[in-house]
Every structure is written in C-alpha cells, then in structure tokens.
Amino acid sequence: MTKRLILIRHAKSSWDAPFDDHSRTLNDRGRSSATALGNYLKMRGDCPDTVYCSDAARTIETTERIVAAMGAAPTIHRIGKMYNGSAPALWNVLRKAKGDVVALVAHNPGIAFFAEDLVNKAPNHPRFLDYPTCATLVCDFPTNDWAEAVSRSGQVIDFVVPKDLNQ
C-alpha cells in the first residue's frame, strides 16, 4: 500500500494590515490561489483525509479555502510547532500523521527544505527549490504507516504553483 502526501505552502499573505507575522491573513491573490488549488486538487481526486496546518492565520485561511473548494471534510489539526517549522519539525508531524492521504500546510523556508528531502527525484519545475506561495507537491510513499516514511523515498506525482493553474 502507499500513502499520499500533499505538501502546500500557504497562499500569498497581506502585508497591509498592522498585524504581527503570525496574524497575517491572505491577500486577494492568495485567496484566489487557494480556491484555485482546491478546485485543482478536487479535479485530480487528491482530497486529503487529514490536514495538518500551522496555527498561523494565513495557513488556516489557506486550508479553509482549499477544503471549501474541494467540498471535502477532512479532519484538520492546527499545530503551533509547524509555524515557521524546520524540515525536521515537519518530518515529526508527518511521521505521526493519520490517514492515507495527508496534507501539510506550512511555511518557507522549512517547507522548501522538507520538500527537497522528501522526494527521490525532484520534479522538473523551475520553482520547486524555492517553493513559492501556494506551491503544492503531491507525492506517494511506499509504506503502510507514516511512522516508517523515510527521506528521499517520495515518488513525485505532481508539483504545481498558482501560475500553472491559469487562475
């Protein structure tokens, strides 16, 4: 059996409001991108059973918009340690994950390093290594248990950024 991971960087956030970084919400472009991504994932049939997201406002809003566009009802966990989490912190979340199709919604730079460490071969996409806002990696792992997932074992199924979605 395989497990599927959907790794999403939060959508574009606003710098206009005088909030602290943790409280920043999405801007209009980010809202549009998150909805477009949700529609795209639904079309592909990549709807997660469980979503783990940072507890920052922009990751929560990204998650809510994606899930609403999919018309799905996954279990959603907000995890404080994912806020600006490192690749090892994200591995820790993944290895404790429940579900066959799991989404993680997090931040750069940790998510970019994590994505690179996940896959056995990077996708042929010019934006993979910098992992821009709302970038999304879909990859499969040859395991029955997330606790057994190991570095460089993920098989890339898809990688997309908002500009690829023709919003």
From TrEMBL:
Q: Which organism is it from?
A: Octadecabacter antarcticus 307
UniProt-listed SUPFAM superfamilies: Phosphoglycerate mutase-like
Q: Where does substrate bind?
A: R58
Q: What is this protein called?
A: Phosphogylcerate mutase-like protein
Q: Which domain of life is it from?
A: Bacteria
What the entry lists under Gene3D superfamilies is as follows:
Phosphoglycerate mutase-like
Family annotation (Pfam families) = His_Phos_1
